[in-house]
């Protein structure tokens, strides 16, 4: 299960489930200052249904499996109370807290998130930023995080703060929004005993401050027994017991199962209410025992008192509709600004990633420089062939280096945005756009560094203007490769698959669109049509015109005179231009406009894809 706590924003109830459900959820607001609010779950049943096989397997896709997650569950919790939900792994009901079980990709989470959380939080009085930051500092102090305020959180694989501090940061990020109901799915998992106890004590203290805290927990220590105001036990989605620790001891004692002295009540009652599936006989025997305990609980005064409390709340005239998300938030531009600062600051901390982003194009250019050293004007010595090879290499490599940037940096941000967008902090497309804006200056600097070294060292057409056109023409495919990767990462989860898809698309584009391997005019009509949808076509035409226009070649002979040689067909650059891409000199400006039009198109497409991703995950 997720290691990060989940909560619903202020004014929200806490249960968010997908699938089919029956029953109702009631939240009673504080009618007057100082009055309490409560959360009631009344006869809730919940089941999930899914297709058996993958989408491409038509036979198995038509079959569905169904699983009962919750069955006739009723709970009642008031503010100031902490409710612990117990159950064997896989038998507690995975949807009970509405927490998605996603693969953990939260490798690097940064402390700047706390400030973003609060700056994006609804505030009736609209306090100043200084006041908001003071509130952040207060929460940090409350959770003993001030001493790591400027420390990279890191991950289990490298550096950063401790696991307990990392867990407290995730709690603080939710606490900033001052929620009335907080839900935690196994917040102590993966922590040592002492740290786990500290986390539970912290959650109990949070509950005492007029909040409702609900958590699931796995194998709690006996010292925590009296910390919980209520304890619920679920077995196969059925509620076996829910009440105070004292009521739990008395109830099981009345059922003939007193807790032995010096035993952990949690372990004893968990074993008592678990179904043993090692053999058919034991499964029937233990399940019958669980059913007897459940029936005894539903007939007990504890259960009837819970139902009575819930029924009383349903008759209150002040009961409002339950808003699951706070609507009054900062605008999209304000969130985008905070995200942009956050993404830029966090990625600047990754020195290796920044260095590779800036020099990877240069490294590729150095290989070409060491191989060719300097182009010549002698046709028989490869004047044309070397230039064509250079342009082909540059157009083919720059999109790939852009793709590497996105694959290295964005999947972690995508995982973070998947988590935080479910908390209602922002939408996924805003994280995408923040990454796009952050990437622009890095890409411009990286391209200028690469072009400055490669262009003048290789001896391409002299002239500052020609150098500017060369740099601008190669900046576009670098950005297009990165943004195309972002689009694919919106609906393909595995970065390795995205790597393969982008590589194949770029190879196909440069083969068909460049015109270097085969003249576009001589291609079959389908390939000719396809070439107009490749950015490589427009980029190559720009580079060919930029390099060959006004260039004169020599072709052997004394004093550079012409010789009757098959390779001496082209003695002027304009001849090569008209042969390779006829009319390209008249389309120079148009090609630039079309080439750079790919960038906003991909950004818009990425926003649409991530909006769809947001919708699908929220469902």
TrEMBL record:
It comes from Oryctolagus cuniculus. The chain crosses the membrane at residues 354-373, 432-455, 467-490, 497-517, 592-610. Its main location: membrane. SUPFAM superfamilies: P-loop containing nucleoside triphosphate hydrolases. Residues 53-261 form the ABC transporter domain. Keywords: Membrane, Transmembrane, Transmembrane helix, Transport. Residues 1-21 are annotated as: Disordered. It is a multi-pass membrane protein. The keyword Membrane applies. PANTHER family: ABC TRANSPORTER G FAMILY MEMBER 28 (PTHR48041), ATP-BINDING CASSETTE SUB-FAMILY G MEMBER 5 (PTHR48041:SF113). It holds the Pfam family ABC2_membrane. Residues 10-21 have a biased composition (Polar residues). One of its GO terms (cellular component) is ATP-binding cassette (ABC) transporter complex. GO terms for biological process: cholesterol efflux; cholesterol homeostasis. This is ATP binding cassette subfamily G member 5. It is found in: Membrane.
